[in-house]
Amino acid sequence: MNSTPLILPKPEHQTILYTDAEKIERRALGLPACEPAPTGLIKRLPKGRTPVKKTPISAPEVLNEACQYGSAFARGLRVELPGGITHLLISGTASVGATGETLYPGDFRAQLWRTYHNLTALLESEGACWHDIVRTTCYLRDIERDYAEFNAVRNEFYRALGLDPVPASTGIQARICRSDLLVEIEALAILER
Asked: Tens digit of pLDDT for each residue in 16-33?
């Protein structure tokens, strides 16, 4: 495989080697084969179609934006649908503080409570609450070790909220983005306006 070295315009002068196969796929997407794509290069909205309204969700008083530590995702999106329906799509959220630091390393239960705190703040920033949540996906670093504690905390939290029915949910063992994070939860809420 032939690769072309690239010096990025960053202080650390990171070199990226693009494989021949990668160059083919980059070109197919309308990107330059051997250099970083400029912002806004690809504009492929089908003719006559308007995108659904999307607004970022944030709660900076309790957790920072992921882009502040180099990740390209929003904490969540508010999606306005026709007919007065709003979806809140909340990204995987963990025990992260207002400056991006991991809170409570090694303490699974404290991390889970902080995760619920962060999710609650994101919901409240949009005028929503846990009664609007219809689905969660729960990622545990070690599901065999931590699931019983996870389920106990979740049951207590949901009972305290009076959720009936409780949200649909899936529990998955997964490597989380940081080695000191033990649990992460993403959520979908639906609201009527």
From this structure: 788 999 999 998 888 888
Q: What is the largest CA-CA distance in the chain?
A: 60
Range of the domain at 10: 1-44
Under DSSP, the state recorded for 160 is: H
Q: Which two tokens stand for residue 107?
A: 């303490």
Amino acid at 86: T
Distance CA 17, CA 34 (A): 8
Tell which residue, 35, 39, 30, 43, has the closest CA to residue 4: 35
Instruction: Examine the domain organization and report whether 149 and 111 are in the same domain.
Output: yes
How many angstroms separate the CA atoms of 7 and 26, rounded?
A: 17
**Are 83 and 150 members of one domain?**
yes
Q: Give the separation between CA 21 and CA 16, rounded to whole angstroms.
A: 14
Look at the pTM and tell me if it is higher than 0.90.
no
